[in-house]
Amino acid sequence: MAKFDVVVIGAGAAGMMCAATAAQRGRRVVLIDHASKLAEKIRISGGGRCNFTNINAAPANYLSENPHFCKSALSRYTAADFIALVKKHRIGYHEKHRGQLFCDDSAEQIIDMLKDECSRGDVHWRMPCKVAALQQAPAGLGGFVLQTDQGEIEADSVVIATGGLSIPKIGATDFGYRIAEQFGLRMVAPRPALVPLTFDAQSWAPFVEMAGIALEVDVETGSVKGRNPTGARFREDLLFTHRGLSGPAILQISSYWTPGTPIVINLLPELDLAAALIEAKGTVRKQLGNVLAQWLPARLAEGLLHAHGFAGDARLADMPDAQLRKLGAAINQWTLTPSGSEGYKKAEVTRGGIDTRELSQQSMMATKVPGLYFIGETVDVTGWLGGYNFQWAWASAVAAGISV
Ligand code: FDA
User: Fold this and answer.
1) How much distance in Å is there from the Cα of 10 to the middle of ligand 1?
2) Which cofactor names does the annotation list (predicted)?
3) Is the pTM of this model over 0.80?
């Protein structure tokens, strides 16, 4: 039987970071992954350039049933710490949008950097390798025994870094959730997040023609007012698709959206449309469709008028103010209820996971099962779009890596 101090299961973002951190402290570490290709999710992230962190990352950018949980790890390993590592490896990077940092060249550089950090600590690899069972060692011995297709492994600590359920075709599994269930740890029900939203075919029919149109909007869901908001609001780009809505605005709001509830989109966030139309009525002798096309893409203006029962060729001057107010509200507060989402095959992340009330916020160890740790996306901490999820992967990995 092979013996190690630490077994890390899952060689993705969090797993490699944790293995490197623990190994560089002198722990004997083995890193296991069932995939034959290393860190596919890092490779495809950020359009192939890996948005590896966000300089503004703060607890408010994360969703969790226990919103304070992420504070400790995020404050002890910050975006600046990861940037220092990237600089040490001479990887060029740039800021793209609102604090989002991307590699200049390729996401492969982040994978190589993490591999190199693992080598510096002499991490042992088992890959591809399947874990058939994980048990606590017999009473009195402490630690864990793993059955794998490369033999039995014994270790004092086991770190579960197998990620969430998104993109099953590149190796996502529910392994972490099954281990949590085996050890009696509570879960927050997982669901797809940072995901395009869909509508039933009938209600979406008027908008199918608009696929490909993109514009900046405000989008909100739930209650965003008061001291304990239950929803959120974002100003980002929205993209029409054949089946519904996508783009950063929709990916962001999807993480907060509860099935069966509406989202509200302001398609002209810088304009009070009703007021502008009423003002224009006195001076502009144009058709409604042409007036609206000053502010919105013409195809979208036409489709929206049709969908809301307005004739595009109606003369603005002939329209009653009450009708213009109705049109203004339909566009400044377009309220629609998605029928669902594109699911795990398109979701960037999984919301929910291991209930953080089962874990120590300092070390990520399960308080009921000494020596068993959960990090990264397995845990009920989900970041916004824009480098926040990798920052959580690094920070939670380091918290466990200095503790195992
Ligand atoms: P991750 O998924 O990285 O790693 C899990 C590892 O466990 C994988 O290597 C997998 O093979 C392995 N595994 C799974 N089941 C196993 C089993 N049963 N046995 C053994 N091994 C197993 N975030 C961000 O901050 N910036 C970005 O630019 C992007 N871009 C992006 C694009 C796309 C298309 C997606 C799908 C996601 C992103 N993300 C992102 C999200 C980010 O990729 C994600 O949050 C992190 O990779 C999570 O890191 P983990 O290490 O927790 O899981």
Assistant:
1) 9
2) FAD
3) yes
